[in-house]
Amino acid sequence: QVQLQESGPGLVKPSQTLSLTCTVSGGSITTNYYYWSWIRQPPGKGLEWMGNIAYSGNTYYSPSLKSRTSISRDTSKNQFTLQLSSVTPEDTAVYYCASHADWGKGTLVTVSP
């Protein structure tokens, strides 16, 4: 079973870039046909898919976030990362990394001065 763990700062200032890392164990991020996603849930709201990176390294983004989002990977560490630029308080959310049915526990990121 694949296990995923998010890590990164819990507090980010407005206009800065939010950066999170997902460390994967129990499987390789280069395994054929696997996609590795970032999903978030603002307080009191539903889940929002942000984007993913494929086993091939190709990336796909939500149209609403595409201009501010970048997903990359480090295959030597079996990790993939999320960068969200120009954050505002509306980006405050629990951020999850996931692959198919396997999810991390999530990490709360608060955007505040």
Produce the secondary structure layout.
Elements: E1 3-7, E2 11-12, E3 18-25, E4 35-41, E5 48-54, E6 59-61, E7 69-74, E8 79-84, E9 93-99, E10 102-103, E11 107-111
Parallel strand pairs: 2-11
Antiparallel strand pairs: 1-3, 3-8, 4-5, 4-9, 5-6, 7-8, 9-10, 9-11
Summary, kept brief:
With 113 residues, the chain is mostly beta strands. It has strands at residues 3-7, 11-12, 18-25, 35-41, 48-54, 59-61, 69-74, 79-84, 93-99, 102-103, 107-111.
Report on the architecture of this protein.
It contains no helices and eleven strands. It has strands spanning 3-7, 11-12, 18-25, 35-41, 48-54, 59-61, 69-74, 79-84, 93-99, 102-103, 107-111. Strand 9 and strand 10 (102-103) form a beta hairpin. The chain starts with a strand and ends with a strand.
**Span from first to last CA?**
39 Å
The secondary-structure class comes to: mainly beta
- Poorly predicted residue ranges: none
What do the pLDDT scores average to? 97
Q: Return the string of H and E elements.
A: EEEEEEEEEEE
Beta fraction: over 45%
Oligomer type: single chain
Cα gyration radius (Å): 13 Å
Q: Summarize the biggest pleated sheet.
A: 7 strands, mixed
Number of helices: 0
Provide the helix percentage: under 10%
Looking at the structure, what is the overall shape? globular
How many runs of DSSP E, i.e. beta strands? Answer: 11
Features:
113 residues; mainly beta; 4-stranded antiparallel sheet
